[in-house]
């Protein structure tokens, strides 16, 4: 089947089929995680981002490739999860720039749009790393520009570009030694290739069952938990408005008076509103004064069931949420947390906003925006507590109109240390500086298990071995968990280390944690060692050394 141009309908099919192909292979992408630990979620994050990207394409048709690409860009931006998802959203944002003003794409247009995609993705990353998805998309774009002046059939062009992408992907271990040590190629780059192969399949006339695009159960968006008796505004109301030259600020001023927990996102033609209110009808009437309603969803949170108009049942919003605690007027704090113990510790420190997430369940940009709008404080501090979530937090900061500060914490113990540095009498910038500096004083060891046989840093690792990982390095591996912990602590300790905190997870007991504490006290008598319940999944123990 030959295509010399791509119209709106065909481009939509390409994105859908690309999503299908990624969903079908996400476990394969997850398995390419450098460390053989059970938190490899690049494929899952990219898949969830793609599902969000094509959501709009599943519900309506478009007349131009500009409209299709804009819908995909917006959907991927709001649903971006993890670093791979955020980068993917920026690729689509750049592609949408290349489609601006176009009804169809010929081969030259397509090549230039890919160049815009690569440039936008690179510019979004503060310190681009070669040997990643960025390298793959850049090399594909460079190859595309070699064909810019030629008139090529689209199937032939995309086949050539995928071939180039696979060649680059195979060489990513040469750019990143860590990939070579683990014997894998870059997971994000592999995910991109699967998407492009799906796009090619659509060009070849393949159209798979789109029900396969629905996210799997168990991947509900991360969110805070509330007791229903504490809900002051009963109806979770969401709607999207479409129109030209809509006065977003005027609408926002009207809507925010009707309740709380407002999320307000606007681009050139659309406004998305989320608010908890007792008067959903009034909110919709106000919206109609500014634009045309495109989607409405109203949920009675107290009854824990949804009334949905033009939309799919959203199971994530049914989760009970946690008691509403008054925020400080000047400062509010929101942290990503996994484990009831850590959530309670954060509350004790003054972190009243929690987003359930972390390893294997990265919250999306929209999850951050929703929680930010719940916080009425003048200054809002975000703690991602995972290196794979920092980009999504920063994306939420950019999109939010609030005064948001991101503390780039990579672990939950770093968050705790940063909060201990907080000074209510200091201004926000001073706190940002001191709290960020505190992160470097914490070394975190996370104890889990291997999901596959591999060799890393000359260490032979077998499936189900215990692993102790710290700051991107494997500090201990073996069959005996206690020996692995002892080795990791010994290698991580520094002369000035004074405090060691042990947080035991959901698969560990307090008794065993206290035994490990006694063992470490005997080996390191000068250390002050404390045991806490973390309740975290995936990791048996999280150890903090300061």
3D structure, described in words:
This protein is an alpha+beta fold and 546 residues long. It folds into 4 domains: 5-210, DhaL domain (Serine Threonine Protein Phosphatase 5, Tetratricopeptide repeat); 228-318, Alpha-Beta Plaits (2-Layer Sandwich); 331-439, Rossmann fold (3-Layer(aba) Sandwich), CATH 3.40.50.10170; 443-545, 2-Layer Sandwich (Hypothetical Protein Tm841, Chain: A,domain 3). Helices cover 43% and strands 19% of the residues. The protein contains 19 helices and 19 strands. It has helices at 8-30, 42-53, 65-79, 82-99, 107-124, 133-146, 154-170, 172-175, 177-182, 187-203, 248-255, 280-288, 340-348, 365-374, 390-399, 412-420, 428-439, 481-492, 510-523; strands at residues 5-6, 105-106, 235-242, 259-266, 270-277, 292-300, 305-309, 331-337, 353-356, 379-383, 403-406, 443-449, 454-456, 459-461, 466-470, 473-478, 499-504, 528-533, 541-545. Strands 16-15-12-19-17-18 form a 6-stranded mixed sheet. The chain has a 5-stranded antiparallel sheet with strand order 4-5-3-6-7. Strands 9-8-10-11 form a 4-stranded parallel sheet, with helices on both faces. A hairpin with a 4-residue loop joins strand 6 (292-300) and strand 7 (305-309). Helix 6 crosses helix 7 and helix 6 (133-146) packs across helix 10. The model is unreliable at 215-230 and 303-325 (pLDDT under 50).
């Amino acid at each position: 089947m030959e295509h010399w141009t791509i119209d709106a309908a065909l481009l939509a099919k390409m994105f859908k089929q690309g999503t299908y192909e990624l969903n079908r292979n996400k476990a394969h992408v997850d398995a390419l995680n450098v460390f053989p630990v059970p938190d490899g979620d690049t494929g899952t994050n990219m898949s969830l981002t793609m599902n969000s990207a094509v959501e709009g394409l599943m519900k309506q048709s478009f007349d131009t490739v500009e409209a299709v690409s804009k819908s995909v860009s917006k959907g991927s931006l709001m649903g971006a999860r993890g670093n791979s998802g955020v980068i993917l959203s920026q690729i689509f944002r750049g592609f949408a720039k290349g489609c601006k003003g176009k009804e169809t794409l010929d081969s030259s247009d397509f090549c230039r749009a890919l160049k815009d995609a690569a440039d936008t993705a690179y510019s979004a990353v503060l310190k681009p790393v070669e040997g990643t998805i960025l390298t793959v998309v850049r090399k594909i774009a460079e190859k595309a520009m070699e064909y810019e002046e030629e008139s090529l059939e689209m199937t032939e062009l995309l086949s050539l570009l995928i071939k180039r992408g696979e060649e680059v992907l195979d060489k990513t271990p040469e750019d990143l030694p860590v990939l070579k040590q683990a014997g894998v190629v870059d997971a994000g780059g592999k995910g991109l290739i699967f998407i492009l192969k799906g796009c090619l399949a659509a060009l070849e006339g393949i159209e798979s069952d789109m029900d396969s695009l629905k996210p799997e159960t168990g991947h509900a968006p991360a969110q805070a938990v509330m007791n229903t008796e504490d809900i002051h505004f009963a109806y979770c109301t969401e709607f999207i408005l479409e129109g030209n030259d809509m006065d977003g600020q005027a609408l926002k001023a009207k809507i925010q008076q009707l309740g709380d927990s407002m999320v307000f996102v606007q681009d050139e033609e659309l406004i998305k509103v989320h608010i908890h209110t007792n008067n959903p009808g009034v909110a919709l009437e106000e919206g109609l004064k500014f634009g045309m309603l495109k989607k409405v969803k109203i949920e009675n949170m107290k009854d824990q069931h949804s009334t949905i108009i033009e939309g799919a049942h959203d199971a994530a919003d049914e989760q009970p949420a946690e008691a509403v605690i008054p925020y400080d007027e000047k400062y509010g704090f929101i942290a990503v947390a996994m484990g009831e113990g850590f959530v309670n510790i954060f509350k004790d420190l003054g972190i009243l906003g929690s987003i359930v997430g972390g390893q294997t369940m990265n919250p999306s940009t929209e999850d951050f925006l929703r929680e930010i709008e719940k916080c009425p404080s003048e200054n809002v501090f975000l703690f991602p507590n995972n290196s794979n979530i920092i980009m999504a937090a920063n994306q939420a900061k950019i999109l939010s109109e609030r005064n948001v500060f991101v503390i780039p914490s990579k672990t939950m113990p770093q968050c705790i240390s940063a909060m201990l540095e907080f000074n209510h009498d200091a201004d926000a910038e001073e706190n940002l500086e001191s709290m960020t500096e505190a992160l470097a004083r914490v070394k975190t060891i996370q104890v889990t298990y291997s999901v596959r046989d591999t060799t890393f840093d000359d260490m032979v690792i077998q499936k189900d071995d215990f692993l102790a990982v710290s700051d991107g390095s494997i500090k201990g591996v073996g069959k005996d968990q206690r020996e692995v912990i002892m080795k990791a602590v010994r290698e991580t300790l520094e002369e000035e280390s004074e405090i060691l905190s042990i947080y035991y997870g959901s698969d560990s007991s307090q008794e065993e944690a206290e035994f490990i504490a006694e063992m470490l006290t005997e080996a390191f008598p000068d250390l002050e060692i404390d045991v806490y319940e973390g309740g975290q999944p995936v990791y048996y123990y999280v150890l903090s050394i300061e």
